Amino acid sequence: MTDALTPPPGLWVHPDVDPRHDGDPVLRGERSVVLDYLRAYRLTFEMKLEGLDAEQLARRSVPPSTLSLLGLLRHLAKVEHSWARRVVEGRPELDRLYRTEAEPDLDFDGAVGDPAVVEDAWTSWRREVAHAEALYADVDLDRLCPHPDGELEARDVLVHLVEEYARHCGHADLLRECIDGRTGQ
After folding, report:
1. 96 lies in a domain?
2. Number of structural domains, the chain?
3. Rounded Cα distance, 99 and 185, in Å
4. Using CA atoms, how far apart are residues 166 and 155, in angstroms rounded to an integer?
5. What is the pLDDT of residues 94-109, one digit of tens each?
6. What is the value of pTM for the model shown?
7. Which H or E run contains 145?
8. Average pLDDT of 29-44?
9. Does the residue 51 lie in any domain?
10. CA distance 18 to 33
11. Cα–Cα distance between 153 and 124 in angstroms, integer?
């Protein structure tokens, strides 16, 4: 028998204390549902990286891929920054995080097993998520946002972010399993 703090075998956390399920009643409305899915996927992603050191986070999947958990963290910080600040706020002149003209894949290529790189990645991701959460809390979902491929509704951005996190949580599952065998949930 397990107590509320001890997860059953194979689970990350006990379902009764899972931070992705806050006990609120069923959500209603497009904004609430989409933002809750995004919140849950962000928490899931964060949980998948929990407890790993710099070398483990930077471990590459399979050659020649540069995919790593640290690379995903940097990539998602870049994604949050680009969609919230450059697209929804309409500030395309801002420099992109972890990307330069000379190094377009710096998010993955620069993900090395250095504690300072890990600290920077977590700081960037948390800053960009906090900024995006504040922005999306009140954004008009019908609002048109400038994009190089044409205007997008803000709802398109939010749905894309849900899709982006869902895909990368799957990658994180596989990467984490290769590191220490933890899977799922």
Report:
1. yes
2. 1
3. 32
4. 17
5. 999 999 999 999 999 9
6. 0.88
7. strand 144-145
8. 92
9. yes
10. 18
11. 26
